[in-house]
Amino acid sequence: MKMKKLISLGMAMVLSLGLVACSGGEDKEASTSSTSDKLEQVKESGKLVVGIYPDYPPFEFHSTANGSDEIAGVDKDLGEAIAKELGVEAEFKEITFDGLIGALKADKIDIILSGMSPTPERDKSVDFTDLYYTGKNIVAVKEGEEDKIKSVDELKNLKIAVQKGSIQEAYVTKLGCTSIKSLEAIPDVMTELKNGNVDAVVVNDTVGILNMQEMGGLVQANLELPNGDSEEGMAAAIKQDDNNKAFLEAVNKAVNNFKSNEFEKSLKENTDLATKENK
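Given the sequence above, the corresponding structure tokens read:
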């Protein structure tokens, strides 16, 4: 009887030690996984998950040119170029523009590529690469009203439409505009203008001109926005984390390669494609 008790006690101790060892190993593995280098994580997963809101042609939009509804645009081309540089596949996840940073912080995506501009407020929560595009912001109005707005101060008392979460929304808010309508998609913003529900739209020049041509009846106002307010730069964004430094460096290298060698071709091709899609 005594021997049986000793054997039982010994087996219990062995099992207990085994469980502790397994538990310690799992905890260490989980800890390593949560703190491992982001670049290594992406390479191990075999994919780069890109957050994008495809309603901003020619940078991101839906296309049926290949017979099915697919995401197209400069930012898609850039995402694929970055993924290729990292040796992985690009996976695009559609998220509304104002939800992109939240998704990045929650690790639902690896990177944002959606015509996003660096701002002091965004710099608090994400890290940006070098700019791959710099454009201007313009004011769009109905045809025949090109000279209606004489100064930037006059914008304050007009009904203005902008894209929700955009740098243009921040600009008109800071300017002190009293009536701002923020909508998710640029085509919706332009439709509000065409239907006479707002007086003007503040928008990126490349995107705005393309949308005005497609919609018809809308033109650029003869109003220059002041320096500093008239430029809009676009960059890729990744989560702020000490473990993301190598990832940011690798992405930045790919961004600059794309800017030097592929950007102009991509912009032209996607501008032509977006124009055809809406004819």
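DSSP finds ten helices and 13 strands in the chain. Try to locate this feature in the token string yourself.
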